[in-house]
Structure formats: structure tokens, C-alpha cells
Design goal:
The complex is a heterodimer of chains A (239) and B (324). Chain A has 239 residues and is an alpha/beta fold. Chain A has eight helices and twelve strands. Chain A has helices at 15-27, 38-48, 64-73, 89-98, 110-123, 162-173, 181-189, 196-211; strands at residues 7-11, 31-35, 52-56, 80-84, 102-105, 136-139, 142-145, 150-153, 156-158, 221-224, 228-231, 236-238. Chain A has a five-stranded parallel beta sheet with strand order 2-1-3-4-5, sandwiched between helices. Chain A has a five-stranded antiparallel beta sheet with strand order 9-8-7-6-12, covered by helices on one side. Chain B is built from eight helices and seven strands. Chain B has helices spanning 3-31, 37-55, 58-129, 133-165, 175-187, 215-231, 263-266, 288-298; strands spanning 171-173, 197-200, 211-213, 239-245, 249-256, 302-308, 314-322. In chain B, the strands form two sheets. Chain B has a five-stranded mixed beta sheet with strand order 2-4-5-7-6, covered by helices on one side. In chain B, strand 4 (239-245) and strand 5 form a beta hairpin. Chain B is elongated. Chain B starts with a helix and ends with a strand. The chains are: A alpha/beta (239), B alpha+beta (324). At the A-B interface, helix 8 of A face helix 4, helix 5 and helix 6 of B.
């Protein structure tokens, strides 16, 4: 699928954001529809069938979460990126139940948004539910039960700290995608700081130990030098 | 005919203590609202009855008893009133303190936002008006710096808010490993290249004890201390990170031989957005030490500081955390 001239529905009630993001995305080659509330977003999503939806969480008339929930209820599986206002853990955990494909904390660099848009579009299979919405993720003999917050390898439950489990969850829902340490920090920890990248490495080492994954010859997590990590096994979602 | 009133009079005499007790219970109830009324009545009545039986002169005894008890009640009441007014004063002081902190915080926040915002506006004007490409490029760079500062402030504010809302992890943490990570991270930052950072960890007679906590938060806390030590000292001032233990707690110290902190600043540096007299020119969100302190408290510990501006100069921050 060509990424050029894909239609993006951008819903944000703050004109300072929408007015600057829209021309930026247009320059990047997308066709952008701008709306400023959840109800209109819902209508436009049904009328125009965009390739991707960007939803702000806090909006008048209907918030971004509710709009997304209703879209999923009527079986519209358009890939969606949620723009969260604060880095609360609860908000990130909720993004899953609402069926968002990715989420980005405000304030963000517009180039980061563009990178996410491209990644989500690349992953998307039109009309199909994405991995972000599956409760049970399987990659070979590795199974992650997102609802029970439990992972098992060849039938045996593996001991993981909640952070390491969230890292695994993020990697498995974004397979075959180069994910930088900064992005993991932003998605799992909610904030980043200079020594933070090392924090990610510590958790990754814990994860690899638990998964019995050799960094030199990985089955699951590959290190991309000076870039980040990539989940290389193919992932299958259920439920 | 005569017998009946005499018998009634005897009953009356016997029940007199109870009646007096009941009468006493009324003021006792008014003065001591927390004592249950039936209990007070029965109690006073029984005391009066027992004394009356022993001394026979029931009415006098009951009167004396009532007199003494009223005295005691009045004493308790005066004491209680004083306690209540003391508590009220304490509470009023507390509320005033909280309000003052809030006012300070808002004033400092206003200041922290005002400066980068002014820079940003100036940069935007330059961007619109400048003709030369290099001037426009410089304006773009300046705008980027201002945005970076605002972002850092917001990120730190969010971290502080997060600490109060999110539960912290409680797992075994290897302190020497954690300190090595922090020191390595600080060394790898280009601005601190070539700085002397030494790490001292006791190994004898037994390995350093493990502690329980949230490793990521502890890394953040120690990193903030190490970064502060590097930031507020000159390039040739060495920084020392050391771990100690005294059986009950472990102490992580970050020491430098910099200019030291003024004594009037020492009590305030852990406040949110407070900037000491020699910290105004150094970049930072002003929230780093508040974060360190909050993380220490969440772990059941605390953070302290000692500093000297006269020789031997320097500052030591001590993060105290309970042992596992």
C-alpha cells in the first residue's frame, strides 16, 4: 500500500496544535482532515474512511476515548493513535481497552508523530483488528496474557517485574519495528531522562534472562546498534 | 399509718446517692460530652451509695462527693480546652504553611515559565523578521532551546505528580550495581566527559546488603544527585559517590568539593522549584532535589545535606534508605 496521499483524520480541539500539525502532515504527503470534537470525529471516520485516525484524549462533546470505543463497537478497525494529555500509567493501560494502536504523550516532537504514523500504517492490515487490541499474544512458545499480566514460556510462567512485562507487551504489540530506548521510556515509564536509556537496558537484560534469549543469537529481541530494539519473532494475537 | 412513710423515707435515704449521682451526671454530661450518660449516673451513684453505707451520713457524703467530682470535671475541662486551642493553633499554622508553600510554588512556576516563553517569543519575532539565512537558523535554534527548557520543566512536574499517584515497585535492589549504572550514565554524557567521578563501595566483611525498592526511581534519585554535583561544580572538582551501611539502613552519599551551598538556602533546597543563590544561573528545572526527597520518603527513608562554603569547601548529599 502506498503511504502517499493516505487520508488522516486529526481530532484535536486545540487550534494551536491542529493548525500547525495539519500543514506539517500535509507536507509529509498525507491528506489531512481536521475536526475539533469527538462527535464530529466519529461522523467523519464513518463518512470518509480515513487510513488512520489521530485522536486527542480531552475534547469537547465526546472525548477521544469514548469516540474510539464507539468506533470499535461498530466494527471500524481504522488504526488509531491516541494523544494523551498526561503520562499517567492508568491512561496508558486504558489505551489498550479502547483499542488504540499507539499512543503519544504530549508534548511530542512532530517528527516522532510522523514516525509513529508510518509505523502504524505499515503494520496495518485494512479492516483487520491489530495486535494492540488482542488480549493474548503468542510468539512461538512465548505467550503473553495481557489481562492477567502474565507471561509464559513453553507452558512455564516466567517471573517478571511489572516494568519488564510492560516492555515485553510494548515490543510484542509492535513487532518487527525498530523501537528506540526513548520511545520505550515514554511509552512504559511515561517520562524520559538522561540516564533513562540505561534503565531500559537493565530491564531488557532482565527480560532476556527470563526469556532465555541470547542477545548474540536472539529468538525474540534483537538489539539494533545505536537505535534500540526490535521484536523479531512473528506475533499472533487472539481475543 | 406511721410505718409506711417511714419505710418510704428509708428507701428515699438509700436512693439519695443515686439521685445525687443523676444530678451530677447532668453537668458531667454537659462538660464531658464524650462520657456515656448511663455509665456516669451509675458510677457516681454506686460510689455515693458505698460511701453512704459506710459512713451512714449519706446526704453529706453525696454532697462532698459531688463537690469533689465537679472540681475534677472542671479541671479536666480547662486542660482539655487548652489542648484543643493548642491543636487549633497547630492546624492553623499547618494550613498557613501549606498556603504559603503553594503561593511560593506558583510564583516560582510563573518565573520558570516566563523566561523560556520570553525567549521563544523573541526567537519567533526574529524568525519572522530576519532576512539572512544564518539569523533565521539561529532564531530556530533559540526557539528549540526554549521549548526544550519548557519540556524539561513539564516532564519533571509530571514525574512529581506521578510519584504521588503511582504505586512504587518493591523488589530486591542491588545497590553497588545501581550505583555503577548511574556513574556510567553520568560519565557517558558529553558535557561531563573527563570529569572525575569515583565510586566507593565497602566489600569487607560481607557484600553490600540488598535493599527493597523501585530500582528505576532510585536510579533517578541518585542520578539527580550526581548530575547536580557535576553541574554545580567546576570541571576540575572531583565527585565521589559512596555507599555505607550501619546495620539498619544504607546511606548513599554524593560528595563534591564545589563552592558549597549558603546556609540560608540549605533548609529550602528540597522545596519544589526553589533555587539557591548560586543555582540561578545553572540550567535545570528546579525540581530535581524535590524529586530525590520524594523518592527517599516513598522508600521509607530520607535525604539530607551538609555543606560548607569555607575551606574545606564542598557539599555532601546523603540518601538514607532502610535495609531489606
Amino acid at each position: 500500500m502506498s503511504l502517499d496521499r493516505s487520508t488522516i483524520l486529526l481530532a484535536d480541539d486545540d487550534p494551536t496544535i491542529a493548525d500547525s500539525l495539519a500543514p506539517f502532515l500535509e507536507r509529509a504527503g498525507f491528506h489531512v482532515l481536521v475536526v475539533s470534537d469527538g462527535v464530529t470525529a466519529l461522523e467523519k471516520a464513518q463518512a470518509h474512511h480515513p487510513e488512520l485516525i489521530i485522536l486527542d484524549v480531552l475534547m469537547p462533546r465526546m472525548d477521544g476515548r469514548e469516540a474510539l470505543r464507539r468506533l470499535r463497537k461498530i466494527n471500524i478497525w481504522t488504526p488509531t493513535i491516541l494523544l494523551t494529555q498526561v503520562g499517567e500509567a492508568s491512561e496508558r493501560a486504558l489505551a489498550l481497552e479502547e483499542g488504540a494502536d499507539d499512543y503519544l504523550n504530549k508534548p511530542f516532537d512532530p517528527h516522532e508523530l510522523l514516525a509513529r504514523i508510518r509505523a502504524v500504517l505499515r503494520r496495518a492490515r485494512p479492516g483487520e483488528r491489530s495486535l494492540s487490541m488482542a488480549w493474548l499474544l503468542t510468539a512461538g512458545d512465548l505467550v503473553l496474557d495481557r489481562r492477567a499480566r502474565r507471561a509464559s514460556l513453553a507452558g512455564e510462567t516466567i517471573e517478571l517485574t511489572p516494568k519488564a512485562l510492560s516492555v515485553l507487551e510494548y515490543l510484542m504489540t509492535h513487532p518487527d519495528e525498530a523501537i528506540s530506548r526513548e520511545r520505550l521510556l515514554d511509552a512504559v515509564w511515561g517520562w524520559e531522562y538522561p540516564a533513562g536509556t540505561r534503565t531500559v537496558d537493565t530491564r531488557m537484560a532482565e527480560l532476556r534472562r527470563a526469556l532465555d534469549d541470547n542477545p548474540a543469537d536472539p529468538r525474540f529481541i534483537e538489539t539494533i546498534p545505536s537505535e534500540g530494539y526490535r521484536f523479531i519473532a512473528s506475533v499472533h494475537g487472539e481475543g | 399509718m406511721n410505718r409506711l412513710p417511714r419505710r418510704w423515707f428509708r428507701y428515699f435515704k438509700l436512693s439519695l446517692p443515686f439521685l445525687v449521682g443523676l444530678l451530677l451526671a447532668v453537668p458531667a454530661q454537659l462538660l464531658l460530652p464524650f462520657a456515656p450518660p448511663t455509665l456516669t449516673t451509675i458510677d457516681l451513684g454506686i460510689i455515693g451509695f458505698v460511701l453512704g453505707l459506710t459512713i451512714r451520713n449519706t446526704a453529706v457524703v453525696a454532697f462532698l462527693l459531688g463537690f469533689i467530682i465537679t472540681g475534677v470535671v472542671l479541671l479536666i475541662l480547662t486542660w482539655d480546652k487548652r489542648r484543643v486551642s493548642q491543636a487549633q493553633t497547630l492546624y492553623a499554622d499547618y494550613v498557613e504553611d501549606v498556603q504559603q508553600k503553594r503561593r511560593h510554588f506558583l510564583r516560582r512556576l510563573d518565573h520558570e515559565i516566563k523566561n523560556p516563553l520570553t525567549g521563544l517569543r523573541a526567537a519567533l519575532v526574529n524568525l519572522q523578521e530576519a532576512q539572512a539565512a544564518d539569523e533565521r537558523w539561529q532564531a530556530g535554534q533559540n526557539a528549540g532551546k526554549a521549548v526544550e527548557r519548557l519540556t524539561r520543566l513539564l516532564t519533571d512536574l509530571r514525574k512529581l505528580a506521578d510519584l504521588d499517584e503511582r504505586p512504587i515497585e518493591r523488589y530486591a535492589v542491588n545497590v553497588p550495581e545501581l550505583l555503577e549504572d548511574v556513574v556510567d550514565a553520568a560519565r557517558s554524557i558529553p558535557a561531563y566527559e573527563g570529569r572525575s567521578i569515583s565510586l566507593l563501595i565497602p566489600k569487607i566483611p560481607s557484600p553490600f546488603p540488598m535493599i527493597t525498592g523501585d530500582r528505576d526511581l532510585l536510579v533517578l534519585a541518585v542520578y539527580n544527585l550526581v548530575e547536580n554535583a557535576l553541574k554545580f561544580t567546576s570541571a576540575h572538582d572531583p565527585v565521589e559517590v559512596r555507599a555505607l551501611e550501619d546495620g539498619r539502613a544504607i546511606v548513599i552519599e554524593v560528595a563534591d568539593s564545589g563552592a558549597g551551598i549558603a546556609s540560608e538556602d540549605l533548609s529550602k533546597i528540597f522545596e519544589e522549584l526553589y533555587r539557591g543563590s548560586n543555582a540561578r544561573t545553572t540550567e535545570g528545572s528546579g525540581l530535581g532535589l524535590a524529586l530525590v526527597n520524594r523518592i527517599a520518603i516513598l522508600h521509607g527513608g530520607g535525604c539530607g545535606v551538609r555543606s560548607s562554603q569555607t575551606e574545606p569547601r564542598g557539599t555532601v548529599f546523603a540518601l538514607r534508605l532502610p535495609r531489606r
